Each structure stands twice: as structure tokens, then as C-alpha cells.
Amino acid sequence: MIDIKIIRQDPQRFKQAAEHKRMSCDIDTLCSLDDRRRTLQQELDQLKHEQNETGGQIALYRNPKSKFYQQALDQGQTAETLTAQSQILVDQMADLKEKAKGLEDEFREVNEQFEALLLTVAQPADPEVPLGKDDTENVEVRRVGDLPKSDFEMVDHVALMTRLGMLDVERGVKLAGTRNYVLRGDGVLLHQAVLRLALDLMVQRGFVPMGVPVLVRDEMMVGTGYYPGGEEQAYRCERDQMSLVGTAEVPLTAMHGEEILSEEELPKKYVACSTCFRREAGAAGKDTYGLYRIHLFDKVEQVIVCRNDEELSKHHHAEIVQNAEDVLARLELPYRVVNVCTGDLGQGQVQKFDIETWMPSRNGYGETHSASRFYEYQARRLKLRYRDGQKKIRFCHTLNNTVIASPRILIALMENHQTADGRIRVPEALRAYLGGREYLGGQ
RNA sequence: GGAGAGGUGGCAGAGUGGCUGAAUGCACCGGUUUGCUAAACCGGCAUACGCUUUCAUAGGCGUAUCGAGGGUUCGAAUCCCUCCCUCUCCGCCA
């Protein structure tokens, strides 16, 4: 969410931001609603003030405990005469209330519209973000690692894993429909090994490991920017007004919502491994094969909550990208980092770097990581604040990135590390998590 | 799921209709005193929004907020209703 005061100062900037992100937002209507809202509030405050004053005076005449009341009695007034005098004020009060009623209704309505619209204002992208309409215009930042070269016919992950008894797509679909799967045997062990490797690395780097709810109140979805707008992508439990999260970013970021942290405890660095649920609505027919686009997966996610300082945010952004790259290095996988263009940015994101890992079966790089920084966009929605050195209350900045998401990463892992004899070479760093095995399959 | 208890400021804890944005204590910040530390004493100390003074820091005024929403009343932390949450006991259960 953007501060309305900043929008008011430079509406043009936000119109353009929405345009670049290919989103629609009626800034003009928002501003006129804001004007109306403020006028109404002033009038209402004034009326309320008069009511409070009048109420206070009535209290003098009607409250036997007040000094005024006692003095009046001493001066020969009776309870009856005092009550009679107060009646004039009570009548005045009725007038005031009558006037306020209409204003209140209008205020409520205007304010509701205003708040709903404010939630849809896009955060302007960083100047470093390339202009572009969609993911085809993302800009490659760097490529790391050599692509595998083989003198044999490479097989895709589904064939490999099925043959090795690691994956059963058919039964996954029988159980839960398309985009579902059953992992088995080494598939499960490898999946867990990769997650654990990622988690351990993050803990080593000072991130606090967390176990968080994956079914959360809708306000957390709103607070992190997924709602309104993303309802179709989430499994929502209407009965309970709760949603299954598509990423642990949601609970990790929202965890300190409504709080005022102290500056010394920042930055908060969290890592959580959680199950992620995605409906993939609107993706029908896209990436239907294999483990690429599935409804349920596990992901180790990193979240940083830091001071309200753009340079600092950028610094942490680089840090969380590096963390992910280091995981891929340990898995000995070739990847590239892309600077995501404006048209492919989310509403609240200032900048996003995707990491795409080489997937031989796609003959290309496939997105495996996504690192975003939000500045105070999420924090403002979540009321996630801290007290700075001057004791001023400020909104935090938030950032997040994937550390590893599996089974998607298994596509790259299986395919890149397959051998001529149909086995899978286990990268050095992963062996400790697989009982020291150097290969999966064979024997 | 059944029965009961309860939700007040950073924390503890008063407050059952007006003088209560809220006693008191602790914590915290500033000051005085003091070889140092501690103690003692004095002062300050919620959040949000709007208006306003100012170059700005920082003020001033107003409104709202005692879990949330609605109601009764001239007036609600206080009375009534609904919901949410926490705790205790019982039942069930990974």
C-alpha cells in the first residue's frame, strides 16, 4: 500500500507506475475520494466535538457527584430544576446527532471506496528495472555454470524418476487430479535432502528457522499483497475465511504485523520450509508435463524485515539472491539471473530478480527462484513498524526470496546430473544428506 | 464438541454509567543529588487520522481507539447482543 499523502503530491508518478506494470488504477478517482473523505472527516470531527462538549455540560446538571451539582444544590436549586435545565442541552444534542447521521453514512461509504482503491495502487518500480511488457522482455544479468554436455541421449526427469521408482505421476493424478504426483523411494529422500541442505545453509548464515502456519487468515494475504487480486490463485477455505498459502513468505512476513519493533532487533532474518499450495488457475494447458507446474510443493523461503532505508533494502536484496545462488552452486547446477521487467512485476514489488536453472528437457532455463523487494509496501498493509533512533515510528522494509523449491528443482537436478548408464550423480554437498551415496539408481 | 473463566497502555493491574485516554506499580527516557554504580527525588512516557504553526526538527487543536462489530443512553472501558481470541476442566484425536 502506498501512502496517500505521497500519491497526492505526485499522482502522475503513480499513474505511470501502473502503466509500466500493465495494471489499471484510477488515481484521479482515488484523489477525489480522498478530498471528499477529508472534508467529511473534518465536518464530522467538528460535530462530534460539539456533542462531546454538550455531553460534558449535561453531566454537570445530571451527575450528583459533580462539584457544580453540589454547589447548585447549596445555592437552593433542586434536582428537578437542574434536570429541567439540562433538558435544553439534551434537545440540542438530538439536533447534533441528527446532523451527524447523514454525514456518517456518506463518510463510511466514501471511505470504503477509498480504501479499496488505495489497495490497488501499484508501487513504482526501481529505475534499474527494465521497461517491458512481459517475461519475454526480462533482462539477463549473468549466467553461471557450464551447461552439461553429453555424448549420450539425455532423458527427461519424468522418465528418469519413473524408471528409478522415484515418481508416480499416474497415481498422483488418480488421487488428486492433474498437476499432482506421488514421490516415492529415492524421490522422497532426494526431495528432503535438497530442502535440508538449503535450510542448513540459511541457518549457518544467521537466518532463524521457523515453523509457520500454512493456513492463514485472509488479512495476511491482503497484508502481503496477494489479495485483492490473487484470490483465484489460492485455495481459500471460505467457511473459515482462511487461505492456504502459496509460499511461506506470507506467514513469515506477516508474523510481526500490527507490532512496533525496536530498531535494535532489526533486521529480522527468517527462513522456513513449508508446503505451498497453488491453484494455477488460468494456466490450463501450460507446462502440463512433469513436475514443473504443480499444485503442491515444498519450499524453503527466506524473508528479511529491515529498517526503512532503500539502500539497505537493496543490499539485503543482493544478499538473498546470493544465498540462493550459493545453494545452486552446491547443487552444481547451471543457472542465470534475470532482472524482471516492469510488465512482469507484481503490484507491490520494487524490483525482482528471478533465478532460472538450466533444465535440459526444456532446452532452456526454467524459473526456480524469485527474489523481490517491496520497500514499505507490505509493511504498510501489515502495520509492521519499528521505532527508530529518534523514537519515530516507521514502517519496515520487507524482502523475500526462494532458497529452494522442490520438486521443481529436482527437474534440473535429475536431468543435469544423469549419467550415460542411467544413474544420477549426487553432487558432493548433497551426499551427506543421502547417506553418503554418490549415485542414485543402478546397483 | 460440552462446561466454566477471562480479554484494559511495553508489562503487571485498578476501574461497574459522566470529573477516565484511563489510578497504581514495574520497565523505559530526561533531569537533580552522588567518588563510580546503585538508591532517592522531580518530570516525561499509547496509537491512528484530520486540521494547524514552522524552512525543518518539534509543537498546538480536534476526533477515534480499553479484543472486533452492533445496540441501549443526553453520555459506555463500565449495561445488552453477536463474533473473534486466550485459559481451565471433560470428551475426541495425529
| Estimated share of beta-strand residues | 15-25%
- Please identify, by name, the CATH architecture of the largest domain: 2-Layer Sandwich
The helix/strand class is alpha+beta
Tell me, what's the shape?
elongated
Order of strands in the sheet with most strands: 1-11-12-13-16-10-9-4
* Alpha carbon gap, first and last residue: 57 Å
Number of helices: 14
CATH-level-4 superfamily name of the largest domain? Bira Bifunctional Protein, Domain 2
In the CATH hierarchy, the third-tier topology of the largest domain is known as BirA Bifunctional Protein, domain 2
Mean pLDDT: 92
Poorly predicted regions: none
Q: Report the C-alpha radius of gyration, rounded.
A: 29 Å
Helix content: 40-55%
Number of domains: 2
- Which CATH class of the largest domain applies here? Alpha Beta
Annotation keywords:
about 40% helix, BirA Bifunctional Protein, domain 2, Helix Hairpins, single chain, three-stranded antiparallel beta sheet, alpha+beta, 2 domains, 14 helices, RNA-binding, eight-stranded mixed beta sheet, about 20% strand, about 450 residues
How would the blueprint of this fold be written?
Layout: H1 4-9, H2 11-20, H3 27-62, H4 67-74, H5 79-118, E1 139-144, H6 157-163, E2 167-168, H7 169-176, E3 182-183, H8 186-204, E4 208-210, E5 215-217, H9 218-223, E6 235-237, E7 242-244, H10 249-254, E8 260-262, E9 268-277, E10 296-306, H11 310-330, E11 335-339, E12 351-359, E13 364-375, H12 377-382, E14 385-387, E15 393-395, E16 397-406, H13 408-416, E17 424-425, H14 428-431, E18 439-440
Parallel strand pairs: 4-9, 8-14
Antiparallel strand pairs: 1-11, 2-3, 5-7, 6-7, 9-10, 10-16, 11-12, 12-13, 13-16, 14-15, 17-18
Helix pairs in contact: 3-5, 6-13
The chain binds one RNA strand of 94 nucleotides through residues 38, 41-42, 44-46, 48-49, 51-52, 54-56, 58-60, 62-63, 65-68, 86-87, 89-94, 97, 260, 383, 390-391, 393.
